[in-house]
Amino acid sequence: MRRALLLLAAAACAVPAADFRLALPGYRYEFPRDHFAHPDFKTEWWYYTGHLRTAAGRRFGFELVFFRHAVTNAQGASVWSVRDVWPAHVALSDLDGKRFFHHARLQRTGPGLAGADAAQARIWNGNWQVRFTGERQALVAIAPDFTVRLDLTPAKPPVIHGGNGVSQKAEGAGRASHYVSYTRLAVSGVLTLDGSAQPVTGTAWMDHEFFTHQLEANQSGWDWFSVQLDDNTELMMFRLRRKDGSLDPYSAGTYVDAKGTVRSLRLSEFSLTPLETWRSAASGGEYPVRWRIEVPPLGLTLEASTPLKSQELVTRGSGTPTYWEGAMELKGVRNGNPVSGRGYLEMTGYAAPVSGL
């Protein structure tokens, strides 16, 4: 079964884009419908990341992500017909204990296996799931060495990134995604680790993207930041790296002010500068783990660093590329005044160039 699923995952990368709908300007979001699956697009993902703290002050980061990759756009006659494959990842960063736990799984569509169903108001892969009640989200992930059960409540409405319903990633029609986020979710729940169940509170971020193809052949990967500052503002920024070492001009960002007002950022309005790297013994990838972030239109300069450099997810055999995704801490100034916060950083293409997206 595992070999068959891996073959299906490989086949998903080879499905012609022409068989699917493109992410084009003019898309009109409708919630809660758009929180769930969009099978007329080839690829889709739901990302949850966040920072947790126990009553004793112990710090953790978490990630739970569900992927959907289409194998075919044909509707099967049986509920067991394979139209999509569903990779999923879960990770826990023990920031004070300097430990990183992560697990990956790969399922096919099928009853009790994996899916994202608006009628059930849930997204799931085995015993990892998110269930919506209105805009509130209940997250459960049971892994061999830890379990998280979290309730997430949005502090702000969903944010739609880009312009006219699309987040453009490269030159050409359809080289884009439909991209929506909850940029600040209040979290409460229970983390079970080392045989002990501890109440936790914190803040999370949720990303949902769906698309058919967005990257060009000359793009090797990306660096993506989510930033939640203590003044109740948020930033999302990504830089798309080309194989020749340059940055793609479609790199972009979004700023959300304390009242929830959204401002799009062009690459010319911000910079992400690596300051320090860490090399993975597992993959050989060399990842920048300390950065300077500058957003001149906001008067904002930050330094982003991580208390745990080893947060790489080596995902061989899961149908997804190896990548680094980890908890970050931020300190800096806004218009001369001190500011701090937390965030998450995702980096792809350092262990091997990303392809098939």
Large-scale geometry? globular
| CATH architecture label | Beta Barrel
Task: Catalogue the unreliable spans.
Answer: 1-12
Report how far the terminal alpha carbons are from each other: 25 Å
Highest CATH level, the class: Mainly Beta
CATH fold call: AttH-like fold
Residue fraction in strands: over 45%
Q: Tally the helices: what do you get?
A: 1
CATH superfamily placement: AttH-like domain
Summed over residues and divided by their number, the pLDDT gives a mean of 92
When the domains are counted, the total is 1
Instruction: Give a short account of the largest sheet.
Output: 13 strands, antiparallel
Helix/strand-derived category reads mainly beta
Helicity, in percent? under 10%
* Helix and strand sequence: HEEEEEEEEEEEEEEEEEEEEEEE
C-alpha Rg (nearest Å): 19 Å
Q: What's the total number of strands?
A: 23
Helices and strands in order:
Blueprint: H1 2-14, E1 43-54, E2 59-70, E3 84-94, E4 99-108, E5 114-117, E6 122-125, E7 128-133, E8 136-142, E9 146-154, E10 159-160, E11 167-168, E12 176-193, E13 196-211, E14 219-229, E15 234-242, E16 252-256, E17 262-266, E18 271-279, E19 286-295, E20 300-305, E21 312-313, E22 323-334, E23 337-348
Antiparallel strand pairs: 1-2, 1-13, 2-3, 3-4, 5-6, 6-7, 7-8, 8-9, 9-12, 10-12, 11-12, 12-13, 14-15, 14-23, 15-16, 16-17, 18-19, 19-20, 20-22, 21-22, 22-23
Write out key terms for the chains shown.
single chain; 357 residues; mainly beta; AttH-like fold; 13-stranded antiparallel sheet; 1 helix; 4% helix; disordered N terminus
